[in-house]
């Protein structure tokens, strides 16, 4: 491409930090340093290296000595392959209608697992045992798919957070009925900061059986983890991961990221920033009469109704996604690198456009 082409790219990427997704943020410098540090010499591939061994031990420190952890490339793979290890094709997974598992994985659970995904609608993205009851029928009846797993998202797709007590209640409900509890933890760091609890307190100790542990939305480059918290569930998973095309030959570059991610609680610093910026954004939006916050801000997402007449003008400068276009509800996500000035400039622009509309 040459120098001229590289300069053109640099000009194109000189854009404001937006509020579209925490996936849109870059990689934390400390994570990049860890990748570079691991890029020295030869190590045995497919996870038989010192970096992966170190990462596995770190997960044991956070989730208990019996945890079995497997690294994969993406969050979808973590969810789908983790569930495939604990379900049969005649089983069903119960989750909320807003879950990533239902709305954003392109039918991957049905294609790769072969089981049904059964959903319930919730006002805040959190499932309850009362709502689960809707699907608890046809048990031991061969004409009906058999409920096997309840899947919750922590933090939810709507920015809300389950308490440890709520998770314990759902886990107990599942276990009493011979079912298992899966947690999609794509934003688990944001939940931990919101709850001010260690990971184990609302996962292993709360009865979660299988966890998809994510770091990509919180400063990592790529790579997610499947943590089997209940002993005996991972016996054949190494074969499932290979058949699922998620066995990394150069696994050290995923593992090294987790070493950097956990060192000196980098994960907590990143999640604390994004949560704090979301609260600041929500507080500023609440001061604008034309804007209505629709969900309690408990992690790094803000859901707000913004007048349609101005929202596209604002989106031309700060990209963000619609949540419910019919009522002009929008999702604003903060990231590990969001700064107060990003919030202040966004609010200033929004107020300016609203003011021009009223003239």
Overview of the structural elements:
The chain has helices at residues 2-12, 29-38, 50-63, 75-84, 100-103, 108-113, 129-132, 164-176, 188-195, 237-243, 252-262, 266-286, 308-315, 340-358, and strands spanning 68-72, 91-96, 116-120, 146-153, 180-185, 210-213, 224-228, 292-293, 301-305, 321-324, 329-333. The protein is α/β, with parallel strands linked by helices. It has 2 domains: 2-25 and 268-358, Aspartate Aminotransferase, domain 1 (Alpha-Beta Complex); 29-265, 3-Layer(aba) Sandwich (Aspartate Aminotransferase, domain 2). A hairpin with a 7-residue loop joins strand 8 and strand 9. Helix 9 (188-195) packs across helix 12 (266-286). The longest helix is centred in the last third of the chain and has 21 residues, at 266-286. The chain is globular and about 65 Å long.
Main-sheet strand order equals: 1-7-6-5-4-2-3
- The share of residues in helices is 40-55%
- Beta strand count: 11
Taken as a percent bin, the fraction of beta residues is: 15-25%
Structural class: alpha/beta
Name the CATH homologous superfamily of the largest domain: Type I PLP-dependent aspartate aminotransferase-like (Major domain)
Order of helices and strands: HHHEHEHHEHEHEHEEHHHEEHEEH
CATH architecture heading of the largest domain: 3-Layer(aba) Sandwich
Average residue pLDDT: 95
Task: Give the low-confidence spans.
Answer: none
Give the class-level CATH name of the largest domain: Alpha Beta
Contiguous helical run count: 14
The N- to C-terminal Cα distance equals 49 Å
Return the CATH topology of the largest domain. Answer: Aspartate Aminotransferase, domain 2
Largest sheet geometry: 7 strands, mixed
Kindly give the count of domains.
2
CA radius of gyration: 21 Å
Apparent shape? globular
